[in-house]
Write a structure and sequence with these properties.
Helix 2 runs antiparallel to helix 3 and helix 6 packs across helix 8. It contains 11 helices and 2 strands; from the N terminus they run H-H-H-H-H-H-H-H-E-E-H-H-H. It has one domain. The longest helix has 29 residues. It has 275 residues and is mainly α.
Length: 275
Amino acid sequence: MILTAFFLPLILTGLLVGALSGLLGVGGGFIMVPILLWLYTSMGLPEEIALRLALGTSLAAIIPTAISGALGHHRRGSVAWRPGCLLGVSAAAGGIVGAVLATHLPPAAVRIFFGLVVFAAGIRILIPQKTETRDDPENRDGRYLAWGFPVGVVSGLAGIGGGVVLIPVLTSVLRFGMLRAVATSTVVMVFAASAGTLSYMIAGIGVSGLPPGTIGYVGLLQAVVLMAVSMPAAQFGVAAAHRLPPAVLRAAFVLLTGYLGLRMMGFFSFLGLPF
């Protein structure tokens, strides 16, 4: 019974996260963080430690999931590799900064920031987009590097791959089509999540009160279970993304980010709603 209560939420979360990663180009951290936070607090850990473990473990699980999604999109010719790598290198630097900030801020502030970022990203997608343009490396390399850093900061601070922030940037600012933005986002997430994970590992070394089976603020068992399920599920999401109209992908992104953003900010609890 105890094992079921422990593993079942992780397995179901991994399936959902993997599918959404491939489908929408997001790491799924905005789903994993609340689930992991609940799991760690149910183990009796203080909220401060539980939240940081949730953030670090979420980032660790995102890495192989994003790799799986990127390879799947690459086989279908949808990844813009040069922009993805430039954004990714810059996002990796930002991810380190964000992770360091998260380990020093109060848990309530991190939760509210997490909710605001996710909600705002969904709202931004609703704004009419400009016409898609193809790569123009000569004029755009600097813009890719400039936008990658803040995306990385948000990734490390909120324990997400950064896709929920990056998708609106790619579609609205850099004028990517929705499918191409989804595919390229998976590449950037590999960089940002890797840097953030390493930072959480280092920041948690020597911290008292951490449960067994952790490296710093990363729970190894939880991360492995999530990875094992989410990686194959990501391929299902990739296949679906290439079959669904862009408008459907956009609507799914908005609904998901809107709900989770409001939930993490405590909006439903404030209204007394059981969501």
